[in-house]
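Morning run. Coffee first, then this:
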Amino acid sequence: MKDKTMKAAVYDEPGAPDVLKYREVADPKIGPDDVLIATTAISIEGGDLINRRVVPPACLPWIVGYAASGRVVEIGSNVRNREVGDEVTAFNMQGSHAELWAVPANRTWIVPSGVDAASAAVVPVSFGTAHHCLFAKGGLRSGETVLIQAAAGGVGLAAVQLAARAGARVIAVSSGERRLEGLSSLGADHVIDRCSGDIVEAVRQITTGKGVDLVIDPVGATLPISLATTANEGRLVFVGNAGGSDLSVDLWPAVQSNQTLYGVFMGQLLERYHVRSTIDDLLIALGRGEIQVIIARTFSLSQARDAHDFAEKAKPLGRVIMAP
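And here it is:
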């Protein structure tokens, strides 16, 4: 019998957004611990852009994509906590840019009633990562000061909100008047335009020379600046390498200042119980209006090339979503 087929955005070799092609491919097959999701909203994550640019396909056809939400249409034989018809959001390392997505059931979360699919698709990666960096690793406490690099990105927008909600003083770094205004409206106490001045000096002025208690850095290339803004005995959490540059940095000043550095890679953490339960809590908070997901623009899946191009070049405030 001929395999059933679906539409997906695939690439045969890494490169610029135009390597993405909208094609008909075979439906994914699920394993005993998986669920099959009919995607409703696909969130383009920073890792999707990096993978498309530099990571050769492990097999063909290769479907990129970390995050999406949708409806469960099939469950594996070992799955007991999901049912056909459940509305879920999911994270996995590959495959979301498609009409159907096979994902381990323990990498899905039930979407609460009243939470829209696009917002739900953003929560596990952006808010889950931000929460882990701020609290599980960064140990942020009320009254402390936190600097958030790339604050207009997905993780940054979430970190600004969660840190402000926890009673911290938030310094957000981004560029462009509209993005800076948006960050202020989400809870940033101070905003710094990275294009118009010395970030280290600005932080010194804001903190009267002390530096910040915690830095969240999803960029990588900004690590020297992040370390220079960190207070004695402060903490720096770096997550990913959105800048795509060499991560080498002189650590001797950090040793002299008794600073603590943590690295975070969420792909290995999302099956842990405390992380899974945190994402459940964040979805509930979203449903209550306690946090906001900012959607910059929505494309159709057939426009995946344009969607990736927009996400890379426009540097929008908020996530870019695709709908099958």
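The first helix runs from residue 46 to 54. Good start to the day.
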